[in-house]
Amino acid sequence: MRILVVCAVAEEAQAVEAGRAVRHELDVLVCGVGPAAAAAATARAIADNSGMGRAYDVVVNAGICGAFEGRAAIGDVLIATDSVHAELGVALPWRFQPIDEIGFGTNRIGCNTVLTVAVEGVRGEILTLASITGSDGLAAQLAHRYPEAIGEAMEGFGVATAAQQAGLPFAEIRTVSNFIGDREVGNWDWDAALKSLTTAIREL
Ligand SMILES: O=C(O)c1cccc(C(=O)CC[C@H]2O[C@@H](n3cnc4c(=O)[nH]cnc43)[C@H](O)[C@@H]2O)c1
C-alpha cells in the first residue's frame, strides 16, 4: 500500500521515518504548521504523485498534539475517529454554531479505521484549530462543546479535506506532548510524544 504521511514539522517527520515498516511504501511530507499549509501541501503532493503514475492509496496526518486532561495522558497515542475543525462556523455571543447548522458544508470528516486497527491507543475525535488553545478557560469551553474530543492539533482537518477531495481514505494519528490549556511550552514533552509516534507508525 502506498501511504502519504503528512507531518507539520521536521521532528515529527523524523519520528515517522524511524517507525517505517517494510510492508508499506511510505512517503513523508513536511507541510508546515496550520490547516491551510496542511491542505495546500497535501493536495499538491497527491496531484503530483498521481500525475507521475505513483498514486497514493491512503493519506495519514501524524504528529504531536495536546490532550484534554482526564481523556488522555502525556505520551499516549490518539487515533481519530473523526477530524473536526473546531473553528469552522459562527462564533455567536452565547454559543458556537458549527458550519453544518447553516448549510455551508461540514466541520467534521470521518476517519478510516481499517488502516489503524492494529495501532494501540485512545480513540475519539481530534480537533483542528488554527490557534493553539492557550488557557484553561478556553480548554474547558472546547471540552464542553466537544465531549467526544480527546485532543487538539493544527493540521488534521486540512489534510483530511485534501484527501477527501481526491477520494482517498484518511487517518489521523497523534501523540500527546502536552495538556490543552494554560500555555507552558517549556513543559511540553516532545521526547515522549515523538517516541510514541515512532511506535504507532510501526504498528500500521
Ligand atoms: O509557541 C511556541 O513557542 C512553540 C514551541 C514549540 C512548538 C510550537 C508549535 O506551534 C508546535 C505546534 C505543532 O504541534 C501540534 N500541537 C502540539 N500541541 C498542541 C496543542 O496543544 N494545540 C494545538 N496544536 C498542538 C500542532 O499540530 C502543531 O503542528 C510552538
Which features does this protein show?
five-stranded mixed beta barrel; two-stranded antiparallel sheet; 204 residues; Nucleoside_phosphorylase_d; 10 strands; alpha/beta; methylthioadenosine nucleosidase activity; FL_hydrolase_MqnB; Rossmann fold
Detailed description of the structure:
This protein has 204 residues and is of the alpha/beta class. The protein has one domain (2-203): Rossmann fold. Helices cover 29% and strands 30% of the residues. The chain has 5 helices and 10 strands; from the N terminus they run E-H-E-H-E-E-E-E-E-E-H-E-H-E-H. It has a 5-stranded mixed barrel with strand order 3-9-8-4-10.
Q: What is the fold's blueprint, element by element?
A:
Elements: E1 2-7, H1 10-18, E2 25-30, H2 35-51, E3 58-67, E4 77-85, E5 89-91, E6 96-98, E7 108-110, E8 122-128, H3 136-145, E9 149-153, H4 156-165, E10 170-179, H5 190-202
Parallel strand pairs: 1-2, 1-3, 3-10, 4-8, 8-9
Antiparallel strand pairs: 3-9, 4-7, 4-10, 5-6
This protein binds the ligand O=C(O)c1cccc(C(=O)CC[C@H]2O[C@@H](n3cnc4c(=O)[nH]cnc43)[C@H](O)[C@@H]2O)c1.
Protein name: Futalosine hydrolase
Family: Belongs to the PNP/UDP phosphorylase family. Futalosine hydrolase subfamily.
Enzyme class: hydrolase
